[in-house]
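User: Hello, can you help with two protein structures?

Assistant: Certainly.
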Amino acid sequence: MDAVTEAASAKEQESKVEDPVEAGASAIPEEELDRITADIVAALKTVYDPEIPVDIYELGLIYRVDIEDDRSIRVDMTLTAPGCPVAGEMPAWVENAISSVEGVGAVTVNMVFDPPWDPSRMSDEARVALDMF
């Protein structure tokens, strides 16, 4: 086998190996990751917009939660309206709630407004609580 053929063969083998980050693998054991995820959701369900009697998770205000291998947590969330009176306080409420979960590291909460929130993001539970059926 000549050098070009060997290089092509090696390159082909490399392309078959999945990158664990891209494949969604985690250094955290699956059972523990499931527990942390469930506990984070439970913590998020303790945070309420004071003007709406439904938690922010069921309202659909949480767009993304990333659990990193170092156990740090990144959250993308929004508000029902950019002018929400608790806009400056709610990210800290979310950070504090998630920080109380056993086994998590640093928590970063990012406020995002794209895409804008709309009622279609609410769960059925939230719709029932708000008589929106």
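That covers the first. Now for the second protein you mentioned:
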Amino acid sequence: MSTPFAPSEAWKSCVEAVREAADIASSFDGRLSCDPIPGGVRLLFSHPGQDARALSIAVHEAGDGVRITARVKEEEGEALSAYEGSPKPAAAMQAAMRAIGRFYGEEVRRVSRS
């Protein structure tokens, strides 16, 4: 029988920091929305006349630290590692903001070319 996962307080703080970063980012453009998911957040970029695309950012406990990954739902392949290190909320928020910025920039360029 497996032992249920008991997340650490540091991990919980990092998850909250990632969610806060997504909430901040979504407040700047009405095309970007966010929803919490287990262990992270899901962002959705929707533009009139275009297919919506989603980005999931997840926080994983990794030994004494955390690993933050970002994955564009519509793309195949592995999730990109956005951060791996100490479970510090500020670092988690910065990593999430960088991942969101890359995703948002790519999406704006995608709809601009259409």
